[in-house]
Amino acid sequence: MKESKSLIIAAFIAIYVIWGSTYLLNKIVVTEVSPLLLAAIRFSISGALIMLIAKLLKREIKVTKKQLLNSAIAGFLFLVYGNGMFVWALKFVDSGFGALLAATQPLFVLLLLRLIDGKKMQRQSIIGVVLGIIGMYLLVSQNEITTSKDMLIGIFMIFSCVLSWSYGSVFVAKATLPKNFFVSTGYQMLFAGLFLFIGSVLLKETWSSPLDWSFKAQGAMFLLIAFGSIVAFTSFNYLLKIVPTEKVSTSAYVNPVVALFLGWYFLDETLTTQSVIASIVLLSGVYFITSRKRISKLKVTSKPQKV
Cβ neighbours of residue 149 under 8 Å, at least 6 residues apart? Predict the structure, then answer.
């Protein structure tokens, strides 16, 4: 039990801190590389490395057709649309601003649980939803945003990505996936890499060799693969199976703080006064949603295994 608690704590640190840095890393790479190609390379390499590690650890990588299909669906929801299109949207918005928009995930998860499972909202949840909506309005209603067509497109795409990721969280919590979380992550990434390469070709993106990228972009991609994909995403899949989905989504109000600081420090990104107020209101709403007294855990059929 003690070891299990330590593993859970380590997994939460991974999705809190490491994922908070991926907004900055993606922003760095997407300034040089086509977004879907970026995501395709990242997840193909990550998936292959994860499966290789699973083999070396003698994990069973053989799966059923149902597990394979569910892995493909999860990979699409999380990584193809949820992440790939989010990276595309970062061409138009700052990394810190994008992180704040992504902080609405717990709100989306709560609403989806209400619609899909019929879960009643408690008083704290309702307060959280109201604050979340007010925060979103304050964030996207600023003059410099409403007068910029590119910013509006980026914001719309990010919200659709958050919805995709939120539905993926609800789906994975119940779906039959490979029992080992490392193997499950590997299959999701391999499918995502394949889908993203196809999407990049269909959209006629400009392809470039990683050897031609700047050292800064190469370094950011390495960190995305090693930590953002392999460590953090495996931790995410692990947590979804052993703790309530709503608790896993608490990363949404830690990630923006990390992303905002890193964007300010490394990319000289700035926040307006209204953005600061909006972020406080929005993150307060997320806090109310994720800290309510009684959170019922989604039932799952697969037994958690260590990775």
Answer: none
